[in-house]
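Summary of Year 1 activities. Much of the first year was spent building the evaluation harness for sequence design. The harness presents a backbone, in tokenized form, and records the residue chosen at every position. We chose the following record to illustrate the format because it has been used consistently in internal testing since the harness was completed.
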């Protein structure tokens, strides 16, 4: 990959250089032509014929000057062209690196349930005295792993489609009503404080956003712990606040929780809370698409507050 970008950078530099040198040479020939004509015209008007060597000397001096200037332009535009080409290609290179990392992380996460299905099925098939009960048990386990695979692929597809989908079907939605609908659909108990708020958005993306935060608030809290949601508007900004009294997040983890596939150690080890570390990455993409931001306050053992702020 580095090689491709190295070659592309040189190619781009050469293109910049060719354009600049074509312009520079065009002007140089023009300048030389104008000065040459001017010398001839003066000869004719003044009817003075300066010595031939003198005229040639002037011509050579102009040619020398023009060659020198063009070499200078070649050098300066070569260096700045190379630097500019690097600057142009850098975001593309970073985006491709990010994609590669994502594919590698996604394949790694997909491999785990696939390996479980494969090994368990092989072991079950090797059992010569396999009865219906054990076969059913195996099928149930396979189904669970397939569900995990489906959830993960759904997440990956959401992340990929997000940018296109958000632009589609944007309309004025009642955020308070949408929040109530999401809470009802999730069949959870939430302490909801809301005022009538309207926002220009894609409804599905707002539902997804609320679902992600509420899902986490439940997952990372003890059973029946209190979850509070506040929806409001302040200084031309819509504010959604999701507060839980759960396990909280370590200060050192907070800068990373929005990274794709990042899971804090507590969620990986303690009681094995299911997840892929993609929810908050999706939430971040949605909020950024609306030019908003997410603030997090959290204390280990006390709980977390996620605050989404979107300009309206
Ligand atoms: P997942 O929940 O699938 O692991 P997320 O991207 O939603 O992925 O969250 C990333 C990590 O952030 C989680 O693994 C967890 O460690 C931490 N986290 C997110 N929300 C909370 C919360 N409400 N309370 C405690 N930890 C949380």
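For this record, the design step produced the sequence shown next.
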């Amino acid at each position: 990959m580095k090689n491709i970008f190295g070659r592309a950078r040189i190619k781009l530099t050469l293109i910049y250089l060719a354009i600049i040198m074509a312009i520079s040479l065009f002007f140089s020939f023009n300048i030389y032509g104008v000065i040459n004509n001017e010398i001839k015209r003066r000869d004719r008007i003044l009817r003075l014929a300066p010595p031939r060597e003198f005229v040639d000397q002037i011509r050579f001096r102009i040619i020398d000057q023009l060659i020198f200037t063009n070499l200078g332009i070649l050098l300066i535009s070569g260096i700045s062209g190379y630097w500019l080409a690097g600057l142009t290609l850098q975001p593309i290179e970073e985006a491709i690196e990010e994609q590669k990392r994502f594919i590698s992380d996604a394949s790694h996460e997909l491999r785990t349930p696939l390996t479980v299905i494969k090994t368990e099925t092989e072991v079950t098939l090797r059992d010569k005295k396999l009865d219906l009960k054990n076969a059913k048990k195996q099928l149930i386990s396979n189904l669970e792993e397939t569900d995990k695979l489906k959830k993960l692929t759904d997440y990956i597809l959401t992340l990929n489609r997000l940018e296109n989908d958000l632009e589609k079907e944007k309309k004025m939605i009642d955020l308070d009503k949408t929040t109530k609908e999401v809470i009802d659909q999730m069949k959870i108990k939430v302490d909801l404080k809301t005022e009538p708020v309207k926002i220009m958005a894609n409804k599905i993306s707002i539902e997804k956003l609320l679902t992600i935060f509420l899902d986490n608030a439940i997952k990372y809290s003890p059973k029946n712990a209190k979850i509070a949601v506040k929806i409001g508007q302040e200084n031309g900004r819509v504010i959604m606040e999701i507060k839980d009294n759960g396990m909280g997040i370590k200060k050192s983890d907070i800068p990373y929780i929005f990274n794709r596939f990042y899971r804090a150690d507590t969620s990986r080890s303690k009681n094995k809370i299911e997840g892929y570390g993609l929810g908050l990455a999706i939430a971040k993409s949605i909020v950024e698409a609306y030019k908003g931001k997410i603030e997090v306050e959290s204390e280990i053992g006390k709980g977390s507050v996620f605050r989404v702020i979107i300009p309206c």
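The first strand starts at residue 170 and ends at 174. Quantitative recovery figures across the full test set are reported in Table 2.
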